[in-house]
């Protein structure tokens, strides 16, 4: 009596598909005999075997011996044979996800990148999730697009949950975000100004210094009930009160963001007249503007009407 194999091995996920082996009895001439055979299992909690040799295996790791017996008859002596079934757990493969470098210095001047550009490797094209441990420094979306927000240290983490074939895994890359851009200097020639609504409904007397000529610029007013600001920086007076006018530069790949502010007091006062002064008694530190709001050099003044230190004067 024999079985086709002495040992049969399968993985747990394939155990349900194995039906078992049937014993074969042959005479001395090699002829197969049709004799009654009984089957038994050495571990019925793990494997049940029917009278015909059909097995039902547990889908957990284990081992069992199946034995076939022929009791004998008037013509043939008793006989038996056994084979072993081994069910093993299939070892999952490594996911293989990783970063080529686990720490990278990166410049805020180029704020948009991807995990692929950062050296993330996913050779088995597995479904992974991305996250940032400091979203105020850098964010990463579901597709792996990374947006740098400010200088600092941040971890970009990639996680694979695992599946039937690959083990769960994770990979991380630390970004050191630096900002090597130039800081532009924006400033106004005065910290405070006064505008009289009796002299017009706009104010353009503030001079902005923008040496690096960064652009575009935007303007805001902290109290738009008092004054609003047009896109070119001209202030539109609305009512008496105080407000802060701020110019903003958002930053670009060459320059950092910057801003400058001045306080504006809006009054509604009757103008009693225009003061007369002469060129000779003009103070050297006076801030002089023409009626178009342009600052002029006190050493190159000619006779005419000017705004001196916030007041309209006639220069003789």
Automatic annotation (TrEMBL):
Q: Name one Pfam family in it.
A: Big_2
Q: Pinpoint the BIG2 domain residues.
A: 124-159
Transmembrane spans:
none
Signal peptide residue numbers: none
Question: Which SUPFAM superfamilies does the record match to this protein?
Answer: Invasin/intimin cell-adhesion fragments
Name of this chain's protein: Bacterial group 2 Ig-like protein
Which lineage is the organism of this entry classified under, starting from the top rank?
Bacteria, Pseudomonadati, Bacteroidota, Bacteroidia, Bacteroidales
């Amino acid at each position: 009596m024999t079985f086709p194999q002495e040992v049969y091995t399968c993985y747990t996920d394939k155990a349900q598909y194995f039906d078992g082996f049937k014993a074969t009895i042959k005479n001395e001439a090699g002829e197969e005999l049709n004799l009654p055979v009984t089957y038994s299992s050495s571990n019925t909690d793990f494997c049940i075997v029917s009278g015909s040799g059909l097995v039902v295996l547990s889908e957990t790791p284990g081992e069992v011996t199946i034995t076939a017996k022929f009791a004998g008859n008037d013509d043939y002596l008793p006989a038996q044979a056994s084979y072993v079934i081994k069910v093993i757990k299939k070892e999952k493969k490594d996911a293989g996800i990783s970063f080529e470098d686990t720490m990278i210095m990166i410049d805020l001047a180029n704020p948009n990148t991807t995990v692929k550009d950062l050296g993330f490797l996913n050779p088995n094209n597995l479904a992974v999730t991305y996250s940032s441990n400091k979203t105020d420094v850098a964010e990463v979306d579901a597709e792996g697009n990374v947006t740098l927000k400010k200088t600092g240290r941040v971890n970009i983490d990639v996680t694979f949950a695992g599946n039937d074939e690959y083990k769960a895994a994770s990979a991380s890359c630390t970004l050191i975000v630096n900002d090597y851009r130039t800081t532009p200097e924006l400033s106004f020639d005065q910290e405070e100004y006064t505008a009289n609504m009796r002299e017009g409904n706009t104010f353009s007397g503030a001079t902005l210094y923008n040496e690096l000529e960064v652009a575009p610029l935007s303007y805001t007013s902290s109290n738009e009930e008092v004054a609003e600001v047009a896109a070119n920086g001209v202030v539109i007076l609305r009512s008496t009160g105080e407000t802060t006018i701020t110019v903003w530069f958002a930053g670009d790949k060459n320059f950092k963001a910057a801003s400058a502010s001045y306080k504006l007091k809006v009054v509604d006062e009757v103008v009693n007249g225009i003061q007369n002064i002469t060129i000779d008694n003009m103070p050297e530190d006076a801030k002089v503007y023409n009626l178009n709001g342009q600052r002029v050099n006190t050493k190159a003044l000619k006779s005419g009407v000017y705004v001196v230190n916030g007041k309209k004067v006639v220069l003789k």
